[in-house]
Amino acid sequence: DAVIHLENILKSYHMGNNDLQVLKGVSLNIFKNEYVALMGPSGSGKSTLMNILGCLDTPSGGKYVLSGHDVSTMEDNELARIRNQEIGFVFQQFNLMPRLTALENVAVPLIYAGVSKKEREDKARAMLEKVGLGERYKHRPNELSGGQCQRVAIARALVNDPSLILADEPTGNLDSKTSVEIMDIFGNIHASGNTVVLVTHEEDIAEHARRIVRLRDGVIESDKLNEIKSAVS
Ligand code: ADP
Ligand code: ADP
């Protein structure tokens, strides 16, 4: 089953009298339990494509089916609902709420999903355990290291059991040792059956994925299985 089905996706921005064509016909299928790195030079359209994949933006043309839902024709409110149900986001800047504890941050998506307080706490605790942060659930972001904050953000992305995890430069703010720890967590998430798409411009980080898709000037330049990773398991 395709989690992501993109058919000739177009995206342009109006710049005064001109249209800037940023995505020029992107077609791509990503199946359940794939682990994909999206790479490409600055300006090639990675963020634009991730915004579309994450239902934060809609394409100017083409078709996007996310887990069986045709999202290319959806209105904003419907899109927001799908986004909450189907997608877990991980950002470079963590995007945690500073006044909430780790546990409360992880539980936020469950509030929108209408889950009871007790169940929210149980699920959030379990997710924090899963990312190796079970002990620090009462800490606030400013009492946690960058790597620990990113673990909280990953736990939050997972808590709704989404069909797709999207990560935009998740190690961009971390030192190399911490980056490896975070990539190990993504490896575990993938191993436990999740579908992961991450944007990175670092080859070392992309090597953790099983498939590497490269964008250039708004089109897919190459799409290859990662031989190294595919060979070891
Ligand atoms: P990447 O993430 O690969 O660096 P982006 O998707 O951010 O690429 O940008 C691709 C191109 O689209 C760039 O030329 C960028 O300036 C332009 N762009 C991105 N977002 C917008 C926007 N909201 N309005 C106008 N132009 C944009
Ligand atoms: P990234 O580092 O992830 O590629 P950018 O710095 O390119 O992000 O862009 C940051 C934000 O600004 C994005 O949401 C993008 O859509 C928007 N953006 C990028 N280029 C332009 C532009 N030329 N005009 C308006 N918005 C832009």
UniProtKB/TrEMBL annotation:
Pfam families: ABC_tran. It comes from the Bacteria. One of its GO terms (molecular function) is ATP binding. The keyword Heme does not apply. Transmembrane segments: none annotated. InterPro entries: AAA+_ATPase, ABC_transporter-like_ATP-bd, ABC_transporter-like_CS, MacB-like_ATP-bd, P-loop_NTPase. Residues 4-233 form the ABC transporter domain. Keywords: ATP-binding, Nucleotide-binding, Translocase, Transport. Belongs to the ABC transporter superfamily. This is ABC transporter ATP-binding protein. It comes from Chitinophaga defluvii. The lineage of its organism: Bacteria, Pseudomonadati, Bacteroidota, Chitinophagia, Chitinophagales.
